[in-house]
Amino acid sequence: MYVIAVVAVVLIAVLLYLLDRGLKAVQTGRRRRDIATRMAPAMAYAEEKAKQKTQAKEASSALTSVLPAIQQPEKGPRRVA
Questions:
Q1: Which pLDDT belongs to residue 79?
Q2: What's the pLDDT score for residue 5?
Q3: How far is CA 81 from the centre of its chain?
Q4: Is residue 68 over pLDDT 70?
Q5: Per-residue DSSP letter, 77
Q6: What CA–CA distance (Å, rounded) separates 55 from 17?
Q7: What is the sign of the dihedral through the CA atoms of 46, 52, 56 and 62?
Q8: Tens digit of each residue's pLDDT (9 = 90 or more) over 6-57
Q9: How far is residue 19's CA from residue 43's CA, in Å, rounded to a whole number?
Q10: How far apart are CA 75 and CA 31, in angstroms?
Q11: How many angstroms separate the CA atoms of 53 and 61, rounded?
Q12: Is 7 left (phi over 0), alpha (psi -120 to 50) or beta?
């Protein structure tokens, strides 16, 4: 009789533990899904800014390859008073 009671208590404890783990997993999944939903616009904005920055860098390098920088004539060493 006592063995059945002990087995029943252990079984109930195991089931409650599994229920707790399952509920925590569902809660974590819901939280991650909400965060992903909120982060999507921020990620799109950051990617667009990075794309614009890359395009500006490419345009700048293309401009200097077509129009070289003005070179100063050789003046020799600078004199400090």
A1: 72
A2: 93
A3: 55
A4: no
A5: S
A6: 55
A7: positive
A8: 999 999 999 999 999 999 999 999 999 999 999 999 999 999 999 999 998 8
A9: 35
A10: 67
A11: 12
A12: alpha
